[in-house]
Design goal:
Strand order of the largest sheet: 1-2-3-4-5-6
Order of helices and strands: EEEHEHHEHHEEEEEEEHEEH
Number of strands: 14
Radius of gyration: 16 Å
Number of domains: 1
CATH architecture: 4-Layer Sandwich
CATH topology: Metallo-beta-lactamase, Chain A
Number of helices: 7
Helix content: 25-40%
Largest sheet: 6 strands, mixed
């Protein structure tokens, strides 16, 4: 299998990790959580010389979706989301007003993602893991093969978990999602959250105070 290219741009006032993954052979790519600062994201895509196949969203809170329209207009890519977060996605302007920010409308979601679905880009594959709790449609993405790693959005952080007091959040469901669908993965698997530093499944099993 070809090399997996990974590059992250930290964007917006909430410091969202917007991550580019690309097949080193074909340069076909996915972009996870284009939150804000579209020019910064587009510069990253141009620097890597990639063609975006999918614009992926771990969930539909504003700090993970606000640049989607601007990025798609310049770079293309199919807009993907779990259906349970579609109402949140479509209400980006309202989300912004509640936090004192101004955002335009989002584009339409073109592909609704399902639990266990596989997405191919070049010679690489991602598996969709539905992990509701932070929001109803929160999902994680697991890279398949020897380059295995997980992009956990705001579900799991280093020694923390996502908040459950926003629209549709459910704290008990969040912990169940993590225990049943993430902590069952191999302990060596790296985890890249939607904010902050990376971690591993094994470290969170033994060191995350919310999961002990």
């Amino acid at each position: 299998m070809s090399e997996l290219i990974q590059q992250t741009a930290v964007v917006g006032p909430l410091q969202c990790n917007c991550t580019l993954l690309a097949c080193g052979k074909t340069r076909e790519a996915v972009l996870i959580d284009p939150g804000e600062e579209a020019p910064k994201i587009l510069a990253m895509l141009q620097e890597q010389g990639v063609k975006v196949k999918y614009l992926l969203h771990t969930h539909a809170h504003f700090d993970h979706i606000a640049a989607t329209g601007a990025v798609q207009a310049q770079a293309g890519g199919t807009v993907c989301l779990h259906r349970a977060d579609n109402d949140l996605f479509r209400n980006l302007p309202l989300q912004g007003r509640l936090f004192g920010m101004q955002f335009g409308e989002t584009p339409e979601v073109q592909k609704f993602l399902e639990h266990e679905e596989e997405l191919e880009f070049g010679e690489q594959k991602l598996r969709v893991i539905h992990t509701p709790g932070h929001s109803p449609g929160s999902i994680c993405f697991e890279v398949q093969g020897s380059d295995g790693r997980v992009f956990s959005g705001d579900t799991l952080f280093r020694q923390s978990v996502g908040r459950a007091d926003l629209w549709g959040g459910d704290g008990r469901q969040l912990i169940s999602s993590i225990r049943e669908r993430l902590l069952t993965l191999d302990g060596d698997v790296p985890v890249f959250p939607g904010h902050g530093p990376k971690t591993t499944i094994g470290f969170e099993k033994t060191s995350n105070p919310f999961l002990l």
